[in-house]
Amino acid sequence: MTAIHPLQSISGAVSGDAAGAGRSPLVLLLAAVLFINYVDRGVLPTAAQLMQEDLHLTASQLGLLGSAFFWTYAFIQIPVGWLAERVGAGRVLAAGLVIWAGATLMLGVSSAFPMLILSRMLLGIGESAGFPCVSKLLATAVPTASLGTANGIVGFAFLFGPAVGTYVGGLLMAQFGWRSAFIVFGALSLLWLYPWSKMAPTRQAAEPRRADAGPALLTLLKCRAVWGAGLGHFSANYAYYFVLLWLPYYLVKERGYATAEMAKLAGAAYVVTAVSALACGWATDRYIARGGSANFSYKGIMLVAHAGAVLCMLAMAFGPRPLAIASIFLYQLLTGAASPGVYAIPQILGGAEATGRWVGIQNSLANLAGVVAPAVTGSIIDATGHFTAAFVLSAAVSLLGIIGWIGMLPDIAPIDWRARAVPPAAAPLANKIC
């Protein structure tokens, strides 16, 4: 089978035309795999109450199940980013999907708590391939002028995943029990491999990279911009994972919704996030194409999203029921608006040379939030019986995002890694950027 060159896969579709990214088979398949990724990881929150009753779990144990995924997911990101650039992002992505589909099936047949923990850790190993590999392929195949739209499409897909996982999973659980959703979603995930096998992984991303190609890992670890993006992403992830993993439980236990009502409400909120990501990614590319600043647009969106998240978290903690529900939808709107920039920023700064490893480092830092947020929230609920303190903590962490995205990042423009490799006196600008 003839491999498809990255630019061939979108020739005529993305030739400086932001909207053309939506016609790229590669972009659509990458969006599909992250949609599956988030459907599979989002089944647990919907099943939490039913699993708790069936298996006699405490809130702290539910929190540990949420965190167990990130014990492996966060720490494997860096080696996965390296592996994607050495043996091929397409191959690593396909292997990851097989692992996470198997782990989802395993969750559906597990009964003992240690087996549930093991399944969640295996799910984290498989799903760690998602963002480093997808970002590597996008940075290689999509022109910079279309990255906002491409990431908006991908963002729409993975943010729409929890809506489907919550709504469809909730209906399956109501009819056939909580195990059915894990088994059905795990089996269906494997279907993605068929169209992916028909589109051979792009040659440039799939072929092994030379050891000296692109910046060294140590160079990236010394780069201030990498740490700024990591801090900003960590802050965003803390609030996002807190809401994603605990929103169904919060709506049922704290706000008194029935399971079916919860599934509809949470599903609708996730749809808002997905649509917001798609619209904001497209709008950002349009703004830049008309002469706007990429630096102003991406950083401005991050500032508004994080400041707004603080207010939304406090409203969910202290507001009456109507205000709390409205704040859930506003928070999801802001999260969706910020999502294209989370990966477009490192794709622009790092370029095709460094994006796989950059996103591996950034995602590793960011997903430490997933280790902390679910477990801390579970402990707070067990100790206090309410979500109030958990929302206040999430609001405080959201403020860190402003420091990372605004205070630590340079202008959003490609970094010249060749200049970065020479002594500081010979390339002061490149070294200042990092």
Domain count: the total is 1
What's the helical proportion of residues?
Answer: over 70%
Name the helix and strand elements from N-terminus to C-terminus, one letter apiece.
Answer: HHHHHHHHHHHHHHHHHHHH
Q: How many strands appear in the DSSP assignment?
A: 0
Low-confidence parts lasting 5 or more residues at pLDDT below 50? 1-16, 201-212
CATH topology: Growth Hormone, Chain: A
N- to C-terminal separation?
41 Å
What is the count of DSSP helices, taking H or I runs of 4+ residues? 20
Give the name of the CATH superfamily. Answer: MFS general substrate transporter like domains
Overall 3D shape: globular
Determine the structural class based on helices, strands and strand pairing: mainly alpha
Put the structure in a nutshell.
With 434 residues, the chain is mostly helical. It is built from 20 helices and no strands.
